Amino acid sequence: MFKSLRFRIIASFVVIVLITLGAAGIGLYARLGGYQEKLTAGTLRQIASPIYYNLTLNPAGTGTVRGGARLRADLIEYLRLQHQDTGVIVLLLDGKGNVIPEAITSDSLLTEHFDVPPPPAKGPNFAQLPEGKHKTVDGQSLLYVTVPMPAAVRLQQAGIAAIVVALPQSAGPNVYKDFRQRLFLAGLIGLAAALIVGLVLWASLYRPMGKVTSGIRAVARGDYRQRVPVSGPSEVQALATDVNAMADSVQASQRALREFLANVSHELKTPLTSIRGFSQAMHDGTLDTPEERARAARVIDVESRRLLHLVGELLDLSRIESGQQRMDLADVRISELLSHVSDVFMMRADESGIGFEVKGDADAVVVADFDRVEQVLGNLIENAFRHSTKGGTVTVGANETNGGFVELYVSDDGAGIAREDLPHVFDRFYRSKNETAGSGAGLGLAISREIVRAHGGEIRVEARAFGGTMFAFTLPKTGRALRRDHDT
Fold it and tell me: Fewer CB in 10 Å around end: N or C, the chain?
């Protein structure tokens, strides 16, 4: 379950909601202490107002005497009822900040002392009464506000200088409890919303992902025609596109492999059939004369050489494509390369009656494997001679191009290659319409392309406007080529 994408998405949203609510709750609780004190102080200010106006009417008069000061009996009763009904502690202070004992509701507060503010000019502002915290002798914590009395009241017989209206901190409004319930309810709502959103997102993500997974499994089973619908979020769409591209590539590779095996089988069948037929004839004794046996031996030798050449080309192509063939890179002067191929093919040109021209930049230097590049040029020149007629011309040359490359080309004025065949000339076992069955296995151009690519260049073919074909390939110049002794 913990490895499930659905579980992880929903769990992620739940964790995010819990972390958010936890952080909000911690921050809120950190500020609730001050808020609770403000609520308590506001309550005390509201209670202080009627007490103040009752005292200012006539605080002194006939009544019980305690400590020498006189307070009306009904006033004392009023203060006692206030304490009984609201739980507030009302203390009357004299000018020195001592508690007046006549109106005290608890003897334990008799020795307490408070600061007395100066008398107000126009009466106290109940919205801005002085407030504070006080710890009593017996260890009780009080939150209080002080109401200063006007000078006229202070001069009366009772001598009341200020009123202290207080509440124990534990007796104030419990905002923590109220907010705890609300936070718990908000948490439940948030968790429910997170679960719903997680399920919706999971559905919108999992369904396209499930289709991608099904497509990958189909390709793994060998169904290369399977394609994945491109839908869902952009990332899933990109994944589906890549999976489809992978399926196209695998399908093309499988088709190419089947064609390759069919072509190899076809190429091997003819020489093997000839070898088997003549060897069987020699074994059965059906070849009576020495001339017939000698002819059979020659055919077997020729076909064996053909087989060995085909297998060698296949191995060579496989090593180059797989990166196992080492390219011995070195500085190669173009003039030296062209001079070499000129010496090799000049006699062939004289014998066939075909012109052979060599053109090139003698100063150009490339970084290449001399033998491998000579193999490419030799293959292209051999093809050009094979497709040229007597009196034609084969041209070999080189030109520097922009970007630090040198382009070598081989052109002829023969029958050329049909335009519909041009995109396939570098495919394995390809033969153009003008080629005969004995003109080769069709691997030379495929090998040439891999050799050129191993040097960091490209090879191309084009039909010439006035007839014939031109093959051209690029090699990097000294200073920007592949490093020497590069393993391709």
Answer: N
Domain 330-476 = CATH 3.30.565.10: yes
Instruction: Decide if 224 contacts 250 (C-beta within 8 A).
Output: yes
Q: What is the pLDDT along the chain (488 residues), one digit of tens a residue?
A: 556 666 676 677 677 777 777 777 677 666 655 666 777 777 788 888 887 887 776 555 444 444 444 566 777 777 778 777 777 888 888 888 888 887 776 777 888 888 888 888 777 778 778 888 888 888 888 888 888 888 877 777 777 888 888 888 766 555 556 666 776 777 778 777 777 776 777 677 667 777 788 888 887 787 777 788 887 777 777 888 888 888 888 877 777 677 667 767 766 777 788 788 888 887 777 777 888 778 888 888 888 887 787 777 777 777 776 666 777 888 888 888 888 888 888 888 888 889 998 886 667 888 888 988 988 998 899 888 888 888 889 999 888 887 788 999 999 887 777 777 777 787 766 665 555 444 455 677 888 888 898 888 899 998 876 778 889 999 998 865 444 344 44
- Phi then psi for residue 330, to 5 deg, are -160, 165
CATH architecture of 234-322: Orthogonal Bundle (1.10)
Three-class SS string for the chain?
CCCCHHHHHHHHHHHHHHHHHHHHHHHHHHHHHHHHHHHHHHHHHHHHHHHHHHHHHCCCCCCCEECCEECCHHHHHHHHHHHHHHCCEEEEECCCCEECHHHCCCHHHCCCECCCCCCCCCCCCHHHCCEEEEECCCCCEEEEEEEECCHHHHCCCCCCCEEEEEEEHHHCCCHHHHHHHHHHHHHHHHHHHHHHHHHHHHHHHHHHHHHHHHHHHHHHCCCCCCCCCCCCCHHHHHHHHHHHHHHHHHHHHHHHHHHHHHHHHHHHHHHHHHHHHHHHHHHHCCCCCHHHHHHHHHHHHHHHHHHHHHHHHHHHHHHHHHCCCECCCEEEEHHHHHHHHHHHHHHHHHHHCCEEEECCCCCCEEEECHHHHHHHHHHHHHHHHHHCCCCCEEEEEEEEECCCEEEEEEEECCCCCCHHHHHHCCCCCCCCCCCCCCCCCCCHHHHHHHHHHHCCCCEEEEECCCCCEEEEEEEEECCCCCCCCCEC
| Extents of the domains making up the chain | 5-173, 234-322, 330-476
pTM, to two decimals: 0.47
